[in-house]
Amino acid sequence: MLNVEKLIVMEGNIHVLVCKLEQLFPQTFFDSMEAVQYRWMYPFERFLHSLKNKVKNKARVDASICEAYLLEETSTTRIPHNVDSGEGSSSTPPISIFNYLRRPGGKVITYFLDHVDLEDATAHLYILLNCEHVEPYLDIYIEFIRELNPTTLGVEIDSDISSTFPTWFKQYVLNSENNIQDSLLVNLAWGPKRKVESWPMYIINGYKFHTIV
């Protein structure tokens, strides 16, 4: 049974209790329609406020909010370009230079390289200079050049590497006296196959390349 006297006392203490509660809770805890600072509003109320601001056609409130929300989402969502969706090579033994994520694009074209084709020599040199398996032999070749001519400059060494290193590497690896039995090095020494495949577009390491055949 309610005690009227206690209710009167509680009514007199309401303003004191509210003041104490306001020290712990924001004002919207007591009245969500009360005009308070923006930072005190609950996240959901702020979200509703942003949705209401998107309304341009008051006759179609729901559709107007949906259209504005979808437009904002599609315009602010960043779709990464040149995504490497392929997978690295899983062949054994692996060649590190071919184990990058990549994705070709367009129609593949198959053709044959000439024995004296500059493209063949350039591709072979690029693979040798960027393959970690060949780095020890590149150091041996540089030491070999310095022994022949101790005064050789760095520019001259780079020129010799570009012109003669693939041939020297092939002779060195295939020489039975060096006892190199690694099939990977032997395949690298022989150079690329004459039958190659080319795509008009190739994406690797986040970059898109357009090829010309």
From TrEMBL:
<dbReference type="InterPro" id="IPR025452">
    <property type="entry name" value="DUF4218"/>
</dbReference>
<feature type="domain" description="DUF4218">
    <location>
        <begin position="2"/>
        <end position="76"/>
    </location>
</feature>
<dbReference type="Pfam" id="PF13960">
    <property type="entry name" value="DUF4218"/>
</dbReference>
<protein>
    <recommendedName>
        <fullName>DUF4218 domain-containing protein</fullName>
    </recommendedName>
</protein>
